[in-house]
Write a structure and sequence with these properties.
Layout: E1 10-16, H1 21-36, E2 39-44, H2 53-57, E3 60-63, H3 71-84, H4 103-106, H5 124-140, H6 143-146, E4 149-153, E5 157-159, E6 174-177, E7 190-193, H7 197-201, H8 204-209, H9 211-218, H10 226-236, E8 243-246, E9 250-254, E10 266-268, E11 273-275, H11 278-291, H12 301-314, H13 318-324, H14 328-333, H15 336-343
Parallel strand pairs: 1-2, 1-4, 2-3, 6-8
Antiparallel strand pairs: 4-7, 5-9, 9-11, 10-11
């Protein structure tokens, strides 16, 4: 078998929870797992639910306790890192609580970190821990040698389009969707390789071992969030020119059973579920129109992003929007009312 025809072994990793899998499983299975001939790993902190297809089809299931006080997890990890690196001091990682504005969305969720004086709510603490926990499992089982590529994603993504093939995503780069960046890089999905998975998942180590250095580097800027921290961290690791983007072809959903006060989304009567982020949905619709749901080796990502921006602006013209929804595939597949309602304030003609 030639190098060109060699099978690329891919592991898709779901982080956190298998939420909304009752809505997303069929398309996720078709457009991601089967399309990429990939294995599935769950790295979660939840109780297994009945008829959960992700559990039934996962090759690996790694579970950890979702503690109310995450400082215990962080302290335990710090002790392990100190021993492994033969350090003779214990850094005060809680120094980072002094970071103002949105940084506490990432590190000092009051419910999860004991000792925080902030009252704002966030899930970044858990998201950073999940990545570290996943990395430990991958390293322990030697999966970096067994798999060529790794996809870090979430279960509540609804896919109408095939995931880009691994042959179209250069393994020397970290690949993420082109959207929902919030000043940094989206944390919702990433495609990694053997050469960069360790760095990408190891967001926690500098927090626990170099908090003073981290604080000094970050204190001059405000409004920190997880997305900004990921970009900052990767730049410091030398990835400023080693991150590339592919179109946002999927969108996040929520069923009625999932209760949340953070980004609850809007209910779609057409789909019978909640759509969490309009921009994701809009991008997914445009890419479906341009690419379709056939398993194509689409790879001109810059061109596709230009097309997305063009359509996004043309939708401000009511006539263009009207003509666009004359397409039967689009009108059948997507919620026209939801799109129009969200674009109404942006219509200029």
């Amino acid at each position: 078998m030639t190098a060109k025809n060699k099978k690329i072994k891919t592991l898709v990793c779901i982080l956190g929870q298998t939420r909304a899998q009752d809505i997303t499983w069929i398309n996720f299975n078709n457009y991601v797992l089967k399309s990429l001939n990939a294995d599935l790993a769950l790295c979660v902190a939840e109780k297994k639910t009945l008829n959960n297809q992700m559990y039934k089809n996962a090759k690996f299931i790694w579970k950890h306790k979702d503690l109310n006080n995450f400082s215990k997890h962080f302290d335990d990890i710090q002790k392990k890192l100190i021993r492994s690196k033969n350090l003779d001091y214990k850094p005060n990682w809680k120094k980072l609580f002094k970071m103002k504005n949105f940084w506490h969305y990432t590190i000092s969720d009051m419910r999860r970190i004991k000792g925080s004086s902030f009252i704002r709510f966030g899930t970044g603490t858990l998201l950073i821990f999940n990545r570290w926990f996943l990395l430990q499992k991958i390293m322990k089982l030697g999966l970096i040698k067994k798999y060529d590529r790794f996809i870090i994603t979430r279960s509540d993504f609804f896919w109408n389009i095939h995931h880009p093939t691994m042959r179209n995503l250069d393994p020397s780069y970290i690949w993420i969707p082109n959207g929902e960046k919030y000043g940094g890089y989206t944390d919702r999905h990433a495609v990694l390789s053997r050469t960069n998975i360790y760095d990408y998942l190891n967001l926690l180590e500098p927090i626990l071992l170099e908090p003073k250095k981290l604080f000094d580097l970050m204190k001059s800027k405000k409004n920190w969030n997880l997305e900004k921290y990921i970009k900052f961290y990767l730049n410091k690791k030398g990835y400023s020119k080693k991150v590339k983007f592919f179109p946002y072809v999927m969108f996040s959903v929520r069923n009625k059973l999932i209760k949340t006060g953070f980004r609850p989304g809007s209910f779609s009567h057409k789909h019978k579920f909640f759509i969490k982020y309009f921009k994701e949905y809009l991008s997914s619709m445009i890419m479906y129109f341009v690419i379709g749901n056939k398993n194509k080796n689409y790879n001109n990502f810059n061109f596709l992003y230009v097309i997305y921006k063009l359509f996004k602006n043309l939708f401000k013209i009511r006539l263009f929007l009207y003509i666009f929804f004359k397409n039967k595939n689009i009108s059948q597949k997507f919620d026209k009312k939801f799109i129009k309602d969200n674009l109404e304030k942006k219509i200029i003609l």
